[in-house]
Amino acid sequence: MKKLLYMLCLLVFAACSDDDDKNEVMSDFDKPFTSISKSELKGMLQDFWLIDTIIDDYEEGHRMDVIRPIGDALEKYKVDINLNNSIIRSTRSTAAPVENKFTGMKLTWNPQKQDLDTTINADGFMEILIPYSLTDDSRNDLRIVVNNEWNNNNNRRNEITYYRDGQLIINIENYINSEEGIEYSNENIPPYFFSYKSTFKNNTYNNATTMQSTEITIRKEGGRSLFQSINMENGNASFLTECNNLRAHVTMNNYNNILQLLQRLRGNDNIDKLAFEILKKNMSGVIVFADRDEKIGDLDLFFDEEDDELPLICRFQDGEEYRLPSIFLEMNL
User: Which of 17, 108, 249, 300 could be a cystine partner for 28, CB 3.0 to 4.6 Å?
Assistant: First the structure.
């Protein structure tokens, strides 16, 4: 019986050990080099040159293509909404707050009056019904729903959703809590999804010395994806960029101290070279596959007097260097 119990204990221990091994995540910096040929890897690394294209295709392309005609309709039918911040600015379309929420209000375009009819909305949110067309105002086929909540200006959330003929075309949500140090914005404009999130301390934000993390995601359904982040911990910085299935990962020791030093050196003729040497000595970086434990190469800074953004190089296993653009989010100095 003792021998049987002993064997059972061994089996349980082995099973637990196997589970722990499976759950352990390998650090990007510990991953072994891939066996994929350099020529194939160079082709894959071209994705990093598409980062600006991914951003522009969304921000300057699809997003503007959807927002522009909505903005024209809002102007035509006398509704004053800031599309970027989801704020209703017109006194006619702004309701007084009750218990930190909008008093429900409904604005409906009346073609006979050529003006908006205003009624109370018992559901407690703001609803706007206007034509999408600029030439035919007989159908109120553009529906806009606005929800705003706030608490002493420290905790604010607003959400605005646009429908055309009942189909969602835009949803934008903004939230900021200065007491907890959180700010985020989500945009769903099919087939794209965009997300921005930032955490900060000392009730301040948009400041490199108080920012703790920033994340940006752009994802197209069935298409390309981009994720970029900066995380600060004990004055050190970690930079991530994932483009499709590639991930570039850089850690920078003493980053806050470096920022303060570079601030003092502003105006120095050799600032670019000094910055390069300081950053290079405190940096570790790799490029890996995001979907498997294999490394493509090590990342390093490349000094170019004609390029202010300090481009990068990927160093393959055999030491060959491959030039890359600047691919990480930038901190505001």
Answer: 249
